[in-house]
Amino acid sequence: MAMVNRKFMACQTLDIQIRTVERWEKTPEDRRQGPHNCPSNALTTEERAKILEVANSIEYANLPPCQIVPSLADKGEYVGSESSFYRILKAEKLLTHRSKSSPRVNKKPDELVAYGPNQIWSWDITYLKAAIKGIYYYLYLPMDIFSRMIVHWEIHASENAEMASSMIEKACMKNGVMKNQVILHSDNGGPMKGATMLATLQRLGVSRPSVSNDNPFSESLFKTLKYCPSFPERGFASLEDARSWVERFVNWYNNIHLHSGINFVTPASKHCGADEGILKNRHLIYQTAKDKNPNCWSKGTRNWSKVEKVELNPKKMEEKLAA
């Protein structure tokens, strides 16, 4: 049964009948001769040429066959069926962009690497439900992707580019960021690319990647925030209540939370460079335990190496090999 299934799958891949393979097993010669007769309903050379002429005309060059055929019918003309149009255009590789229009080019997001704190920030806005249905508070939150530390946060009752630009300016002043020092990554939401925000970034010397497809670091942080056991499921009683809760969360996240992405040190210790000593001490403890009882260790000790760099929008391995 397994042999039959493998043979059937191979025939599907090669686009041949299984009976053809069975004949080949008996007689290795390929005796296929193809059809002897042309189908009676096959299009003539003139009819194929007419279909190509109509499809490439100025009037129909930007339309698909599903619109060309009914348009011709409204004019009392019949050149060919919709399937004939599709089949002939596919054979001629003319199914898309028959006119001078060029296909849309999706530029890949910039590949960025952070080797230290305050080199690349990621920021986003998330909504926090209020206790009153239909009312939301908006959390503006930038983080450092190298250390994962929350560098600033604000909560407002609305979402707009003016508040966002003011928030980023405060974050830069708070962290002593100089001109042309930090890259600010975000998605393509309105407040992230509004005119006020872009003007503020230009004034502060903060660059923004030209293309941003998503925001994985900020989205991961917001998931941690909203899945926190103390996160109020029924919403916050007031704006002050939301700010008080987020303040406690930020303190826990930065100073207590052992982050898996930076080898289980706190974001604050990573940000100030104290993680190197912490990880060296862990390695020493593990090595001492192994030396004391080597029979319990089949391999080396756990890797407590310092995370030296963090990549944003990294290229896939096949793209790196091709480059």
Written account of the structure:
With about 325 residues, the protein is α+β, with helices and mostly antiparallel strands. Helices cover about 45% and strands about 10% of the residues. The chain is built from 13 helices and six strands. Strands 4-3-2-5 form a four-stranded mixed beta sheet, with helices on both faces. A two-stranded antiparallel sheet has the order 1-6.
Could you tell me the strand content as a percent range? Answer: 5-15%
Global Rg: 31 Å
Could you name the CATH homologous superfamily of the largest domain? Ribonuclease H-like superfamily/Ribonuclease H
Largest sheet: 4 strands, mixed
Supply the CATH architecture of the largest domain.
2-Layer Sandwich
Number of helical segments with 4 or more residues: 13
In total, the number of strands is 6
Question: Could you please say which CATH topology of the largest domain applies here?
Answer: Nucleotidyltransferase, domain 5
Mean pLDDT: 87
- Helix and strand element order: HHHHHEEEEHEHHHHHHEH
User: Mind telling me the CATH class of the largest domain?
Assistant: Alpha Beta
- Shape, please? extended
